[in-house]
Design a protein that fits this description.
heterodimer; A: alpha/beta; Rossmann fold; four-stranded parallel sheet; B: alpha/beta; five-stranded parallel sheet; three-stranded antiparallel sheet; 8 strands; globular
């Protein structure tokens, strides 16, 4: 493993499989225990450096670090010296001077974690940067698929929605390709990035055509906060063409699963009856996120400080 | 190394236990466990420390059932996340942690490992057990005790005591993991 986890491309197939296997072992080791805590990272400090809002990712990282006995500092830009104009670099160096061993960073600017990694000694984990990547989300999605379907190689994954703005989609495309899954992107042409032709994916504009052959349907959130241009005519039209409702779910093969990275817009990209159905893995994904992030923190921080 | 045509020195291998010896030692420990546990035998839990403690625990359980007719529970506890030398040795893949359904609370737990050396693995296993439940008592069974303890830990059941020097390494091979049973002492090159 590399020292940082900045993008899904940092993981080769062996690394990614090691993360998933480690997460599975951690999950089974902690299942049914009263003391859900391991001493592995005792004395290490993990900083959650969040410049963007987050519920599940920040809590998930915090819980993962705490279950490994690391000390956790939660830093959110609101209410900090960032609002006085302190730069990312100075903020990071300040945190490192206080002895942080790893920085988990979420930032609105794509590439911010990469810059951060050049400035600090410790490990940097990307928890979402702009519209670029969110590698631990892709890892927990892969983990969830493997848990439900028993394999990743050859699994047909359909990713539906706002691919243009989705760091979840980007990370998933690269990680799933590394792990041997076949990815199809379905979106309105306006919500596909330029250069998607060079990605290891197929592209379709017709959701109904691809559903009968899908093992996994991954719905992306319509990111209202990034919808600064008219990407589609109306929410209703988007929902009608690209939303997953009960009828469309009925077209899926019997053992296919429905995923969503959260937070959901119920009634927009996913109907409530689908989100709450037995096919939905949305709650599993959240639980698996803790195990996967524990595995990542263990593999990045557990060993010698400079064993590369 | 470059420029020298000499082959690296072969490690000198002194076979310590043959496959037959390993079988006899396992049988003897099984008999000792039956004798010492007495009427408690049914409540015994054999907990192997991966990698090679796990198949050893299963073998002991099989032999105990053969000799006494009583089936004892078997589990494994992976100690990687409890090690105190992770920073020195680096991270490694985790192995199974699996306890019997009935758990370990109030029961006699016998930890099983292949080699007892510094005692640090056993310390880590004791810490792991503490998080998993509260056994009535914990004992330790090892195939080989090679000395050089760094902690106040001793084994209750020892297959073979082997005086070694620190520079030597004791290699235990078991059919389940390595394809054959054998214990050797090797001088490190």
């Amino acid at each position: 493993m590399k020292r940082h986890l900045l993008e899904a491309g940092d993981l080769d197939r062996d690394d990614a499989t090691l993360v998933l296997d480690t997460a599975a072992q951690i999950e089974s080791a902690l299942a049914g225990r009263e003391v859900k805590k391991l001493p592995t990272l005792r004395g290490r400090t993990v900083v959650n450096l969040f410049f963007e809002d987050s519920t599940r990712t920040r809590i998930s990282f915090e819980l993962a670090a705490k279950r490994l006995s690391a000390d956790v500092i939660n830093f959110s830009a609101k209410g900090s010296s960032v609002s006085k104009g302190e730069s990312l670099k100075d903020t990071a160096l300040t945190l490192e001077a206080m002895g942080s061993d790893a920085i988990v960073v979420r930032h609105g600017a794509s590439g911010a974690p990469h810059r951060l990694a050049q400035w600090v000694q410790g490990s940097v984990v990307n928890a979402g940067d702009g519209t670029h990547e969110h590698p631990t989300q892709a890892l927990l999605d892969a983990y969830t698929i493997r848990q439900r379907l028993g394999r990743l190689d050859g699994v047909r994954v359909v990713v539906v929605g706002d691919v243009l703005h989705s760091r979840v989609a980007r990370s998933n495309v690269w990680l799933l390709a590394t792990l041997g899954a076949e990815v199809t992107l379905v979106a309105p042409p306006t919500l596909l990035p330029v250069g998607v032709g060079s990605w290891p994916v197929q592209v379709s504009y017709d959701l109904d055509a691809v559903l009968p052959k899908a093992d996994v349907v991954m719905m992306l959130r319509v990111q209202a906060e990034r919808m600064n241009a008219s990407f589609f005519p109306s929410a209703r039209e988007y929902s009608r063409r690209y939303g997953l409702d009960g009828r469309r779910m009925g077209a899926l093969p019997d053992d296919a699963i429905v995923m969503h990275p959260g937070p959901m817009n119920r009634g927009m990209e996913i109907a409530a009856e689908v989100a709450d159905s037995a096919r939905s893995t949305i709650v599993d994904q959240v639980g698996n996120g803790v195990s996967v992030r524990m595995a990542v923190l263990y593999l990045l921080l557990g060993g010698a400080p400079d064993s590369e | 190394m470059t420029g020298s045509s000499a082959l690296p020195a072969e490690p000198t291998i002194a076979p310590l236990l043959s496959a037959d010896d390993v079988g006899r030692v396992v049988d003897r420990i099984a008999h000792q466990l039956i004798e010492k546990a007495g009427p408690d035998l049914g409540g015994l839990v054999l907990v192997g420390i991966p990698t090679r403690g796990a198949p050893l625990a299963r073998r002991l359980a099989t032999r105990i059932e053969t000799f006494s007719g009583i089936r004892v529970d078997v589990g494994t506890v992976d100690i990687t996340l409890y090690r105190d030398d992770l920073r020195l040795r680096g991270v490694r893949a985790l192995e199974d942690t699996r306890l019997p359904e009935a758990g370990i609370d109030g029961r006699l737990v016998v930890l099983v490992d292949d080699v007892l050396f510094s005692g640090r693995s056993v310390r880590a296993a004791l810490d792991a057990l503490r998080d998993l439940g509260r056994p009535r008592a914990v004992q330790l069974a090892v195939l080989v005790d090679r000395g050089h303890r760094e902690l106040p830990i001793r084994a209750d059941y020892v297959g073979k005591n082997v005086p070694t020097s620190r520079s030597q390494s004791v290699k235990v091979r078991l059919a389940e993991v390595d394809g054959r049973d054998e214990v050797t002492v090797e001088d490190q090159a």
